Fold each of these.
Amino acid sequence: MKSRSDLPTLLRTARSALVAGHVNPDGDSVGSSLALYHLFTGLGITTTLYSAEPYPYNFLFLPGADKVVHELPLIEPDFYVVVDAGSPQRVGEALYRQMSVTRRPKLFFDHHVSYRDPGAFFDQSFLDDAAAATALLVYRFMKQHGHPVTREIAVAVYAAVMSDTGGMRYSSTNREAFAVLAELVDMLEPWEIAAKIWEEVPHAQLQLLAEVLASIRLLAGGKAALFEIRREQLERYKLGPDNVDTFINYARAISGVEVAMRFRELAPGRYKVSMRSKGNIDAAKISNEFGGGGHRNAAGFEFAGSFDDACKLVEEIVARVACQ
Ligand SMILES: [Mn+2]
């Protein structure tokens, strides 16, 4: 079984594959998926590039990103590869269900520490929590087995490493990350990739930001800043949840504000709430009151009710938590 389902063998024998990243996809998930997609298609394997959710706007420039599909193919692929997901469940419900019952090989590339595949789910895993990005594990495999690194693959790996290290700033940044970027740098334009990842927003995002900033509510004597993002707004501007990720920073930056809360509407009367705090307020404490969790400076929970209800509750809870 093992020998038939390892990646070098599959690359010689399989005719089709499915590559999937995780829900709420980030640059590493997209870049790792695309590196494998280009490797496989280059070897003549018909490859489905799958993502349960749309790729973030800032990674749509990556070559091949337009090939992503959000529906599972009708005909089952010869094998599956999951990247960067932390655990197999995070590929999304439909694919997880299919992979749970399939007899086809399943492989896994990841650098997250939380999941140690005991071989119970995957047939072969490439895991290393010392890697700065999952894309580096894909790159290692390619080098080890002598697969040529094309320009498309170089751009995908470079963007994945850059984004997952916050531009080589996070504690995961290491010698391998620098060495691989140096190997790739002649095949691409670093300034162009940096600009695409960090310096571009769609015009509609700024229009929505203007609308949202004007609607920020200051509560609890100016200690809490709350705002809502309704589904209708995202639909009207044709934007996704990733387009509003940074909005909370504006609310938190307001002088006197100690906690900022973003209420993103999931369905009528149901919200996903993200919190960022600074100063003395413990965001996790507020989150706990709503049945959620998190850290002192970043927490979240789901809220059932209206935004007005939420504001009243927050007013009361912040007053109490701030006194503790
Ligand atoms: Mn990652």
Note: Residues 158 and 181 are 6 Å apart (CA to CA).
Amino acid sequence: MYLENINDPSDIKKLNIKQLRVLAEELRTEIIKVVSDRGGHLASNLGMVELTLAIHYVFDAPEDKLVFDVGHQCYAHKLLTGRYQGFQKLRGKGGVSGFPQAEESEYDAFTAGHASTAISAALGMARTRDIMGGDYSVVALVGDGALTGGMCYEALNDAGQSGARMIVILNDNAMSISRNVGAMSNYLTGLRQSVTYRAIKRGIRRGLNRIPHVGMPVFRFLEKVRDFLKSLFVDGKFFDALGFSYIGPIDGHDIKHLIRVLRRARDSRDPEPVLIHAVTQKGRGYTPAEEHPDEYHGVAPFLVESGEARKSGGIAMGQVAARQLAELAENDIRICAVTAAMAGGTGLDVFGEAHPQRFFDVGIAEEHAVTMAAGMASQGMKPYVGIYSTFLQRAYDQIAMDVCRNGLPVTFLIDRAGLVGGDGATHQGVFDLSYLRSIPNLVIASPRDVRDLKKLVALSATLDQPMAIRYPKNGEDMGPGIQAQRDFGIGEWELLSSGDVMIFAVGRMVQLAMQATIELMGKGVSAGVADARFIKPLDEKLLTEQARRAKLVVTVEENVLAGGFGEGVLDALSLAGIETPTLCLGVPDRFVSHASTAEQLEACGLTPLKITDSILKRLGELK
Ligand SMILES: Cc1ncc(C[n+]2csc(CCOP(=O)(O)OP(=O)(O)O)c2C)c(N)n1
């Protein structure tokens, strides 16, 4: 066992190539073992093992800076940088994060979680080094999927003329989460296929070398016509044109060759940045993941022998919405769906199967997805854009200016809203109510269960204005006691019960609030709940009527308090001149780290008992 003895990357440098290959297999076994137990990103990490080893072999982290794009592929890196113990509790409270986190280790040069940021961050580091007179290397690791994101092109464009020495390693496995899309992906496929041409070229060099006096001059002549050859073969022209020195494509699993190429890039003193195109296999070493890399991109705990998930996650809200949309689209040619590389995660693949002509995966390009949808809506389509709450942050300006300013009927299906568990701080969907509530023309809704979600989707189809529907990954079909009793219009809340303490709750918080009222009643406090399913517009009639009669108004939301639903209620009460005391409960003003969703809700005071305690405390203060 070599892995046990790796305390930091200097230990890797003591191994020979053969031993590194054994270590690679040990890393794979460890990653499969831990991810099968705890869930996480499997296929991407299995594909990155040799690359990670070679990088740590050649570079001297933490002096040299390694910047991971997205960061979901950093497991081998974590195991090689002194975090073996913490890795056993991967993504859990007290364990390591599934993403690079600067506060976790000095080896994590840049905290990440969202795609397409690495080249920008690395360029920033390289420029800083040059200003400060440092001499370290900066390496950005970017996947071909991440390369569909616009920021990468902004960064390549800037870096190519910067004169800042840096290395970009493109980890090309032809996959985003699902099969990669777009013209760049096609271009990379062309480059991968040109490997044969390179092999021939290497063969010619070797052959010519054997002819004394004649061989090398002839080869040098051929080198001179390299540019001409490049125009005949696809080669890295695109990257060359941007000012990068392109090396590749190379086999991303051949440790020996990787080390050779990385050393060459490290030691180059050329002013132009280097791009190394490494070809890897997603899921390598675990047959189910090799065969279905998309299904094993991010996984729940699973059985290693069969690859089967160990527990099912409830009803996927996104799939419910997508199935309904697919049905609505049968009779409405205007309905179409857009995803930014998350067809499976958002459930929209279901729509894509039913209506392939009206389904668009635009790559990891949230901004483009939104404005593209706005363009479609401007010409009479009724687009549904399915994006996770955390990734939609990218497209704030596009939502505000291109959709809402134009008043276009684009509907946002905002998945993974609220606290998300193991993915942690970078993936929490707890800002959307704040960032959307400030935008005019936008209707914002959140269903408390699956039935309400269906009603909201049906309602959205009739609406000629922008709308956002936000929901968590999984929902429930609530029992008849608390399910919505009737249809509702825009801005209409539902009074579920009435009391001295009136709780206005959003989304899945409604159920917790109902449980809190039972706790409160047990303590002799009369409490009621309203489902505030519209965050914008608020149901001012219901709100003011109930607030006037209540002794305490409480809001509960799975969103940061700053700018959230609670603040909207406070504004409305103040405008109406209602002075009933208030209490706003929600996510506090800090980034919430990885843990189980239940632990995160607990930490944010969003459990029935914690809600009850907060209310009792407030009532105590009011006495
Ligand atoms: C802005 C943003 N949108 C979507 C995602 C979700 N996401 C995480 S990894 C990934 C695919 C990345 O593909 P690639 O860069 O090729 O890495 P691979 O997993 O194939 O190694 C996506 C879409 C994200 N992290 N950030």
Note: The longest strand covers residues 552-560.
